[in-house]
Amino acid sequence: MARMVESVEVASVERSEVLRYLGYHGQEVTPEVDARLDQAVAAVLSIARPRASFRSFECGPRTIRDDGTPELSLLGCTLVLEGKSIAQHLDGAVEVGVMAVTLGAGIERELRRLSLTDPLGQILFDAAATAAIERAADAAEALLVADAASRGLYTNWRFSPGYGDLPLECQPTLLSALDATRRLGITLTPSLLMVPTKSVTAVLGYFSQPQGGARQRCEACNLRDYCSVRASGDTCQSS
Amino acid sequence: MPLDSTTLTTPQGHKAVRTLRIKDDHLARVLAGEEFLLFDGAMGTQLQERGLAAGDVPELLCLTNPDQITEIHAAYVAAGSEVVTTNTFGANATKLGDAATVEEIFSAAIGCARASGARYVAADIGPTGALLQPMGTLSFEDAYALFAEQVKAADAAGADLFIIETMADLAEAKAALLAVKENSYLPAFVTMTFDEDGRTFLGTTPEVAAVTLSALGADVVGINCSLGPSDVAPLIQRMLPWAHCPVMAQANAGLPHVHDGRTVYTISPEDYCQAVTSMLDAGVTVIGGCCGTSPAFIAGERTLIEGRTPVQCTLSNSFCVTSAQQLVALAPGEVGVIGERINPTGKKRLKEALRSGNHDLVMSEAISQTNAGAQILDVNAGLPEIDEKATLVRLVSELAGVTTLPLQIDSADPQAIEAAVRSYPGKALINSCNGKQEVLEAVLPIAKHYGCAIVALTLDEEGIPATAEGRLAVAKRIVAETDALGIPRADVVVDCLTMAASTDQTQPRQIVRAIRLVKEALPGVRTVLGVSNVSFGLPYRELVNATFLTACFGAGLDLAIVNPLAQRYRDAYASWRALSGEDESAQDYIAHYAGMKEGGPVQTAPTTGQEAASAASDDEPGTAEERIRNLVLSGRKEAVPHEVRALLSDGDGSHDVMYVINSVLIPALDEVGERFEKGTFFLPQLMASAEAAKAGFTVLREEASGSDVPSKGPSALATVKGDIHDIGKNIVRMLLENYGYDVIDLGRDVDPQEFTDVVVKHHVKLAGLSALMTTTVPAMAETIQLLHMQAPWCKVIVGGAVLNPEYAEMVGADFYAKDAAESARIAGEVLG
To answer: What is the Cα–Cα distance from B461 to B435, expressed in whole angstroms?
Structure first.
């Protein structure tokens, strides 16, 4: 029985990822910047309180609106996923996993403090936090993979509102389906921006057949550090 | 003439004293802490069991399925609930949208609750779902308006009390509680929800919640949701000593789990009740349940309170002030330090900072005082030529971003005080009122209504009394009024007012005696003193100040308003705490002073760090000019101030400020810009160099009398309305400032008209706007349209992740800048 709110652990972030967010492509990194980058990463890891919440719903009817936009309804959930890209992503899925994950308000507060006092510190901290929320999202996604595997199902990978033509307008219902404001402290602005800003929402498909792709080889899988299926000796493609 | 408390109002017109409308004697005894009250359990879990879909708006069921809602309420009443909670958790105008009006939902929901036969109907008010400024975009007053609409609807529909619940943000809880106090006479129960680490998502502790909300006038405070009862119990115990009202607990039935696609909870009613028993033993008097609880849990709790009498727990008698994250409590006999430095009086650079709206200096004063051990920061924005009220409100919000210390709101303008304390997320200290009738009438209602502590100056229409007895007489008159208004004695801090010994040598003794008399004659009140005036006109003032401070501590002084960075004060404070026994076994004193001896090096206070390290780089090769250039290029800021000073004081005086700017710093910055352009520098390197150059400019500004450093511009920057990404904008600002442009930074989430007003007022020639989301680009277009209409002289640069040259043209911008370096080049074109 899975807890509805899971603390997920982000023990490290890839330095190369952080540098990539900073627009790095091979320049010299002076010792000063190098040291401050280390400080920023350490600060993010100590302040972040990554938490995730997820649920899965059976797929309901797939319909097409008058304007040609495909729509996928879910059973027991009012979230409607619309657009060609999500229709394609969930083509053939029997269930949909829905997740939300955040690094928490402490990260947001530190970003604000740095924005008032230390512009360089702010960009380094922001890049490190962006790398950290992606890791936390990997950890949350691994929870869905394990949930699917426990019922003999196979997942593809996470897809967030705002990607392709899946509209940001589904955010309020998605967050409310997970009770994410109460359970995780994720709020929305009228412009549909999540605060804390270092938060991710996503959906993925549960299928009755293995999906291959990025999941095919554990060595290449982003979720490997967080995978509980692999820890039990199976893989999410073979269980 | 004594004030008439029944007619007193704050400057905004809110009544100082609120008379509650309490339904019956039992509820009155509950509010006095004399009897128990039993709420109900979960609504959401019960609705899910009846098939509510995830993501649905449960409040609409009050309209569509009223019988189902009444059935749930009735089951709780049958189990023993005295209070049922309406199904209105998210029933605010934003969340309901077009589905129904707030009035419709509250009217239907209260009808459903009433039909269950419950003794009391509690109107439920949950969080708005949006985060308040400054971290989010919802303003305090907009949140207040959403809550006020709910309060009026519930009051009109016949609720018996309000339950404001599951709050994670102290500012939001405050907005909701004020909405109840200012729009209804019904009692307000307030609960916040805490994480396993003992803080809310936004960092508030149980102690801070209890102090702040009970001072603000909550009739009951407590904890609900998130955790199971055994995790809530220790947090409730932390809350109890600080709540000057009954305390309530509504825990979850453990943590939620997902099983077969359903949300389930794991704690049995028996285990739940066992944990609740420990809370009753500790002093909790109002109980019920939250997520996952059912009538079975309530029936169990009913038997717990049958035949039991409430436990009275011992309340703290400390002087308390809070920020959203920190409680500062001084027990009787303990002494504290209020940092005085955020006050423009006599400070030229701070005056300039407040006039220009560039608050970097204020923020660094806050940080250095925090690091130096201040417990409270005084904030004063009293300059005749600025909008004090607006500046004070903005400073209070910005300061909460850099320090967790509680603030002392320092102003002679009651309207500015009220505006600042109203949205302040915590319990503030007001500085000040005095014995003048007019001042008491204006300021005491603010302290009472907003639950603040207040400084009372011992002066009145006749001026400052010369004697200790005269000062005591004024203090007595003020305290008679605060007593009559029900302001607790521990919240009243009497300032006996320091006078210079050099003008009247009898004064120091009178002041010391006045402190003693006030503490004896008015038990419970506290005293505060700004000591430094005493030494006016004498040499080596720090010594005189410290001696006087020690004498005052001996007479019973509780709080000193001083410069916490001055070593003599720190010595007096630390040694007094060791002598008085407050510093147990003198541990702090020994930790800081072991090994020091007379005539030894005087410890300097920690500074912001910017100038602390003047690591000499003399051993590096080259001329001073080359060394500065290298420091800027390699982004090493620590040694820059030293090198710049050395260059200025070098030889024949030919190396003036202009020389350093035009021949050293600007060429180095140009080189940095070129390297960034060519891709040999990446962003952090560019910023590190900009920081190093800034350290040089800071020295130049200090060395030169302001006018010698030319400033160009002004320019104005903002992240547009609805967007809170400010990194790109901050980078642009840093570069522009380095090139000598005056930058007015309006921050993030900036209203189009507000931005345009500033551009018009300062005749800004170049405006920079940033947007990172497609959803906020329309706000950018709107801002540019207003600028074109109302400030046609102003050129506009735009930038941000979602923009490109075509988009920039579409929104009507004059320039598109792909990065900060390009913004600086465009500024050169436009502003020269």
So the answer is: 7
Confidence of residue B609 (pLDDT cuts 50, 70, 90): very low
B295 vs chain A: nearest CA distance in angstroms?
23
Q: Over the stretch A22-81, which tens digit does the pLDDT of each residue have?
A: 989 888 888 889 999 999 999 999 999 999 999 999 999 999 999 999 999 999 999 999
- Report DSSP state, residue B60: G
CATH number at residue A209: 3.40.109.40
Asked whether the predicted pLDDT for residue A214 surpasses 70, the reply is no
Interface check A94 vs B, CB under 8 A: no
Distance CA B177, CA B189 (A): 9
Structure tokens of B326?
Answer: 């920190």
Q: B342: which strand partners?
A: B379
Evaluate whether ipTM surpasses 0.90. Answer: yes
Smallest Cα distance from A136 to chain B, Å: 18
Question: In chain B, whose CA is at the least distance from the CA of A5?
Answer: B256
Q: What is the mean pLDDT of chain B?
A: 93
What pLDDT sits at residue B21? Answer: 97
Interface check for B724 against chain A (CB to CB < 8 A): the answer is yes
CA–CA distance from B645 to each of B348, B641, B790 (Å)? 21, 6, 45
Contacts of B590 (CB under 8 A, 6+ apart): none
Q: Identify whether A192 is part of a domain.
A: yes
Residues 354-393 of B with CB under 8 A from A: 359-360, 363-364, 367
Residue A212 · residue A235 · CB < 8 Å: no
Are A109 and B135 a contacting pair at CB < 8 A? yes
pTM (two decimals): 0.93
Residue in A49, A113, A193 closest to B724 by CB: A193
Mean pLDDT of B387-413: 95
- What is the spatial distance between Cα A102 and Cα A106, in angstroms, rounded to a whole number? 11
Average pLDDT (A124-142) is 97
Q: Is residue A215 part of a domain?
A: yes
pLDDT at B546 over 90: yes
The answer as to whether A44 is a domain residue is no
Look at residue B599 and tell me whether its pLDDT is greater than 70: no
pLDDT the model gives residue A225: 87
Cα–Cα distances (Å) from A169 to A79, A161, B263, in that order, read 11, 8, 26
> Considering only residues 417 to 436 of chain B, which have any Cβ-Cβ distance to chain A shorter than 8 Å?
none
Mean pLDDT value across residues B78-88: 98
What domain range includes position A71? Answer: 49-103+131-231
- Domains in chain B (CATH in brackets) are 26-305 (3.20.20.330), 319-591 (3.20.20.20), 624-703 (1.10.1240.10), 711-831 (3.40.50.280)
User: Within a domain: residue A191?
Assistant: yes
Strands B795-799 and B815-816 come out as parallel
B683 interfaces chain A, CB cutoff of 8 Å: yes
CA angle A113, B174, B318 (to 5 degrees): 85
Q: Cβ separation of A176 and B54 shorter than 8 Å? A: yes
CA-based nearest residue in chain A for residue B775: A191
Chain B residues inside the 8 Å CB shell of A24 = 682
Size of interface A-B (CB pairs under 8 A): 179
Contact A149, A229 (CB under 8 A): yes
Q: How many domains does chain A have?
A: 1
Question: Distance (Å, rounded) from C-alpha B145 to C-alpha B393?
Answer: 19
Pairing of the two strands B327-330 and B407-410:
unpaired
Mean pLDDT of B440-451: 98
Nearest to B259 among A1, A36, A189 (CB): A1
Q: How far is CA B557 from CA B473, B514, B544, in A?
A: 18, 10, 17
User: In terms of CA atoms, which chain A residue is nearest residue B732?
Assistant: A119
Give the CA dihedral B377, B382, B383, B386, nearest 10 degrees. Answer: 100
Check if the beta carbon of residue B249 is closer than 8 Å to that of residue B223: yes
